[in-house]
Amino acid sequence: MSETHAGTHAALMEASPFGIQSKKLAMWLFIASDAVTFGAVLFGYSFLRVGSLDWSYPFKFSPSIINAFIMTVILLTSSLTMLAGVFAAKAGNKARCLAWMGVTMLLGAIFAILHLREWFHMFDEGWGLFKNPLGGSADFGAGFFGITGLHLTHVVSGVIALAVVALGYNSGRLDKNHVETTSLYWHFVDFVWMFVFPIVYLMNAAR
Amino acid sequence: MNDTQAAVHHHVAPQGFIRKYVFSLDHKVIGLQYYGLALLAVFIGMVLSWLMRLHLGWASLPIPGLHFLSANGAPGNIMTPEYYLSLMTMHGTIMVFFVLTNAPFAGFGNYFLPIQVGAADMAFPRFNMMSFWVTFTAFIVFMLAFFVGDGPPLAGWTAYTPLSSVGGTSGPGEATGQTLWAISIALFCVGQLLGSLNFITTTLDLRTKGMTLARMPLSTWAWFVTACIGLLAFADLLPACILLILDRAFGTSFFNPAGMVVSDQLLKYSGGSPLLWQHLFWFFGHPEVYIAIIPGFGIVSHILCANTRKPLLGGTRVMIGCIIALGFLSYMVWGHHMFVSGLNPFSALLFSVPTLIITIPSTVAVLMWVGSVYGAKLRFNTASLFCLGFISVFISGGISGFFLAQPSTDIFLHATYFVVAHFHFVMAVAAIFGIFAATYFWMPKMIGRMMNETLGKWHFWLTFIGVYCIFMPMHYLGLAANVRRYSAFTDDFLIPLIPVHKFITIAALLTGAAQLIFLWNLFYARFWGPKAPDNPWEATSLEWSTPSSPPPFDNFGGKQIEVFHDAYQYGGAGAKDYVMQTDPASVPAD
Fold first, then answer.
1. Is B149 exposed, middle or buried (CB count within 10 Å of its CB: 0-12, 13-18, 19+)?
2. Is A21-204 CATH 1.25.40.20?
């Protein structure tokens, strides 16, 4: 809604302690909740890893760690481009915002493709949800595919959400606040990756 | 705020039956739907407890018709030990999830939280509708477990692994039944997450002019804190259930250790840990019992103030502090459920200390209620009686908590009837008493008709005496080392305890039968009760400022209301001893 709308209603309402839209607050609450979900899964993975006697360390520097590193750079860059999109939207420059959102979606899609390529490469090597070709704990596969699968689901949902919001913003059905709220989700997905990358990749580098 | 406000202002009262009563966006209808679902569930759960109690008292007595429920589980109408466990699992899950979460939090919270903050509806009415229907689907999926091949699961409401995670080899009900359990609870989590998100946003963003956070009624505060707990707790159980489903259906072994032999079969799992489930489950499970009880704290405080005609002793803000402290501490103590699970003894100590610290806000709250009643001209109606009952059973259950919070005594008492007595008093019966108090207090507003006070008082006294007859002897059983989850007592040292079990069974049957009085009272009032006035209890909060009972579609008849005081301005000297929140008049002097 427009700024004037907020103005007329503000007189009838008690101020929100955070002074933000309900939808934005709801997104923050969702992020808090989702953080617990990721926390639970990462805790479970770490708990099993610490207790394991025969953990596998499969990721060679080349290509796995390099690939994951490139994915990390891409995802972090996409946060920057998303930010540029939000700034453009706030400045009222719709075309530039849509362009930046497009770049963000592209980077998200590249991340997903690189990730899936890695997955299929691992499937070929014999890895699976409960398969370990190195003969160590089968929990590596369960943890790896479980956590990265959860994250990848978030990335793909994020790209779809960005596409829906970009279309709505283009047609005028949605406004700059929707862009910003969606960007919160996108940044969260990037933020979670900063936990997934070291815990799942770096700590399992071949030694 | 502006977006959703605009949306709320725009939507008009729906006309068709489906939109009005089934897929309704109205928080009041959704609240009643949750309440109705809880009512259905509580009677199913109660009948299950009757079946279990009958078997515990008279193990060889056939229960006529039981074999219709399960031919394998009850050949000759006598339940097998496994079927006893299945009934226990269904009883626990139904009661904890579909009754103690649905009624006090989702039911009454949905109905009254928006009204008490002066809003026309929840912040996200569509999420609200989804929340109920996802929960309803969860209930249907769960009840299907009764009718699948080998019956309902038997791993308890806590679904401890590896019993729950290895599939059909571990016992009857552990094939399809346990999978249905996990799917149902995962759905339930989604429903409650949507609800919690809605409650928090509504409380923070949709308060009417003048309704500062400190002026919100205590019931609203309790629902708000409960929603904050639920938002995090269910977000933890959801992935736990998904991992359980992965273990059961996709061959992973998150919860299954290597070299496990079940039913003389070596299972091909490796690397998992059954303790992981306990950590994930209880990180949800302990906050869950606060989700059940904290709305009771708010409801009892709210109703006691209206019936003692004065604010709480010590002040509303202290109670708000207690509720917030309980909500926070509920996340610090999950390990006290795992004292005998093989935790490091130092970890046990680490969980024991915050568990004992929880007694501080609990005790402060109890002292505030007792102190408020002391010397007050208490109006003895059914609602206030159930509040007193709540305080009584909460104290009784709380005291046994001291013994269980100590790892040294818990090692002996764990998994005995002492624990059964403790949690039934402190969370189950106390929360149910909160629900009853809320029902007698708010039903006039919700259904527009008064409930019968005489029947209500009969209901209270029979229930109150009944629950003490059921659960007090269980402390004795526990101290005599009567383990829980046994379907019959054939060990030498348990045989002398059977008469106690018979007494408990009779008490449970009678107390259960007394609930029919309540059911009759509720249904009679709904259709033939005397019409309720707008403010039958002379209370001050916004739900009593609505222009009719039940309130119109937008709650306040299109009127913009303004709030001038907190909700507990009672005790003036004049003929009218209270000031409505919407009344700009000054506060009465003592």
1. exposed
2. no
Which residue(s) pair with B208 in the sheet? A13
Which class for A163: exposed (0-12), middle (13-18), buried (19 or more C-beta within 10 A)? middle
Q: In the prediction, which pLDDT does A46 show?
A: 94
Residue extents of the structural domains in chain A: 21-204
Name every chain A residue with its beta carbon within 8 A of the beta carbon of B253: 130, 138-139, 142
pTM: 0.94
Run of H or E including B82? helix B81-93
Contact A22 B239 (CB under 8 A): no
pLDDT, one tens digit per residue, over B310-337 is 999 999 999 999 999 999 999 999 999 9
Q: What is the ipTM of this complex?
A: 0.92
Query: Do the beta carbons of residue B323 and residue B298 sit within 8 Å?
Result: yes
Q: Provide, as residue numbers in chain B, all residues whose Cβ is less than 8 Å from the Cβ of A24.
A: none
Domains and CATH numbers, chain B: 28-257+268-545 (1.20.210.10)
Tens of pLDDT, residues B413-438? 999 999 999 999 999 999 999 999 99
Calpha distance B257→B263 (Å, rounded): 16
B217 vs A18: CA distance, rounded Å = 21
B251·A130 Cβ contact <8 A: yes
pLDDT at site B104: 96
Instruction: For A55-108, write each residue's pLDDT tens digit.
Output: 888 898 888 899 999 999 999 999 999 999 999 999 999 999 999 999 999 999
